[in-house]
Amino acid sequence: MAEPILEVRGLVKHYPLTRGGLFGRQAGAVRAVDGVDLALGSGETLGIVGESGCGKSTLARLLVHLERPTAGSITYRGEDVTRLSGKALKAVRRNIQMVFQDPYTSLNPRMTVGDIVGEPYEIHPEAAPRGDRRRRVRELLDVVGLSPEHVNRYPHQFSGGQRQRIGIARGLALRPEVIVADEPVSALDVSVQAQVINLLARLQAEFALSYVFIAHDLSIVRHISDRVGVMYLGRIVETGRDAEIYEHPTHPYTQALLSAVPVPDPGARERRERIILSGDVPSPVRVPSGCRFRTRCWKARERCAREVPALAVPAAFRDTPGPAAHASACHFAEDAAPAARPAPEAGPPGEPG
Question: Which one, out of 21, 25, 93, 238, has a CA that is 20 to 30 A from the CA of 209?
């Protein structure tokens, strides 16, 4: 990958917990994002996938500066934007936009579609002359497959898929370089999901966009991503080119997720063993020591409770031509996935499994 357009290093977001009301003493923290590294190349789609509660949406809000990180850096075109404020931060925000998860709640029901799509011009008036904004809004509606004649309609007059297209048009209004799409199709019917994914792919080619595409469904991420990062309990546990992740996963969590993806070929479906994980994701308030996945992992050994595994290149990929792109945060990444063994019983969060 060439010089990244967006780079994250050691990104942390903790939400403090207090006892005794608003002004009580701090009693721990929710470790929503807890040391994330990632990079996004120009024109690339980076998929971020994981279970609900793993920190994906918090990561999305940090990337578009809806929240300030507790620690770490977010670098856009070589500049650490976590140090910016005022006009300098506003200029960066213009180039990094977001498409939200729920098209039913992310659009103001009291505003017309024209006002919703044109709202970014009120915040960034330098982006379009006032007399030209209506024309641009109509063009944006046409670009996302909606009728420009519907500028005076309200969100409730559109279907879920059409509302998400409105949200995408709003995200394009300022001609950003990066769009962070937070579960953009999870609230839509399966048939509509494919249409929105195809639209995003077309817009990427047309406007030279870079995407951070967040989802909990690996099968959806595969259709649009160039590289994939798998997230668990606030951290990236495996990352690599999409083909490497889907065909040769090395982290046990990734292997378990992929074993649940539907396979159209009946023969392949019969040959594949489903990996059933025991227990639930531990609380982000009290994460396990060492490897965070060990309480649900069939590979877990004593070392996993003592040492935090680094996100490193597995031996199988060290001789891969080109820059090393595949990394896994597992002490035993070389071990094969289980044939038909059940996962071990999980111990209490924070205790050895």
Answer: 238
